[in-house]
Amino acid sequence: MTPIEKRAFSYASTIIALFDEVLATKKNADRVIADYFRANKKHGAKDRRIIRETLFGLFRWWGWLQRIPAQPEATQQLRLQQLYFTAKLEQHPWQDISDAWASLAEFAAPSCTIVDVQSGCAWLNQLFAEGEFTAEQLVPAWLWPLLPKDFSEQEALIDALCQRPPIWARAQQIDRDVAVTQLRALEIDAASGPFADTLSLGHKSLNLQQVELYQTGKLEIQDLASQVIGQVCQPQPAQRWWDACCGAGGKSLQLASLMVQNGAGDGQIVASDIRPAAMNELAKRASRAGFNNIHLQAWHNDELPVSAASFDGVLVDAPCSCTGTWRRNPDQRWLDTEDTVHESAQLQLSILTKAAAAVALNGSLVYATCSITDVENQQLVSAFLANHPQFEIVELTHPFNGAQTKFLTIWPFDANSDGMFVAKMRRIS
């Protein structure tokens, strides 16, 4: 091997081992690669970038890569080919490494210019006439029947899922424009977003522990689609809100920040979850940001952890299949199954039904998921409303196209974000 081939082979061995570990253990790829880098501190910034981006690229294009024809007993060659195609499809800049992967695989491919899914598909069909590659193969077949019946943007969804999303964030307790100026001074690609506190931080990986705004709680990482949920809630300064499934607290922090933006008052947020570790993380983040109106209340069992009919607003950001985050977590496309969706829906309806009891008369009940499947979203809300006539649906305005809807879905192609669903209900009796 030449020196560059040795280096490329070393990368390949590491990436393939991590890829196989994710598939075998069903662990999130982010967690697997974080554990690897924690145990192997020898890698420099460039090494880490090549390993990380190629690993996620493998999952992003796995629907095609697993269809590349292979000769019997040529597994190593196939894997090296898959790494080469990943680098080409992702348009990675490490040309010397990708060429070395092709050389090691004894594979010669004509030069190509790939700009989107369609051109990548055409290139593979040119190379492998028997392959019959299609764009639909990049998404598990079981997903399509689970989307809303009127969904007709398959091509746009596939295109979005095959592009890396930007890093979205919120400014809190600080003017957004001031935050942009400070971040740009650190050579971070910061720009204003569509909401008053939204920022885009570009696509480059960031070490947030070196960013003072993040350390002092004035910057929170939160996807743009996720930020829509807080905008739908629109908590007012003197209101009481319950974040029934708070997790690590991103929505609780957003609600607190919006209360401040909407005026002075003594509003209160109660945040609940069944996971103590997640709530501990929320406590740290709230303290760092200087929010003293967020109170934690663990939800241990079927009994309501808060008083009934006592909140102006209840947010149920329910545990879900997370199909809306497949763009950011491409490994989940191939780890999840249709059963994951149906199991989530059963849990979601149970949580929503219990949490609804905490809504006061004329109060708001907001249901949200980071899923794009109909069974977890519109079907579930419709089933809830059919059994709870004391609630009515509230019409919403799509924040990115202005359409009026009772069931708001943010598709990944709507705003260069994750996918998200949200519905708002009002207690009328």
TrEMBL record:
One Pfam family in the UniProt entry: Methyltr_RsmB-F
Residues of the active site: C370
Positions of the SAM-dependent MTase RsmB/NOP-type domain: 155-428
UniProtKB keywords: Methyltransferase, RNA-binding, S-adenosyl-L-methionine, Transferase
GO biological process terms held by the UniProt record: methylation
InterPro entries for this protein: MeTrfase_RsmB-F_NOP2_cat, MeTrfase_RsmB-F_NOP2_dom, RCMT, SAM-dependent_MTases_sf
Chain sites annotated for binding S-adenosyl-L-methionine: D273, D317
Domain of life of the native organism: Bacteria
Gene3D superfamilies found in the cross-reference section: Vaccinia Virus protein VP39
GO molecular function: methyltransferase activity
Family: Belongs to the class I-like SAM-binding methyltransferase superfamily. RsmB/NOP family.
Full protein name: RsmB/NOP family class I SAM-dependent RNA methyltransferase
Source organism per UniProt: Shewanella avicenniae
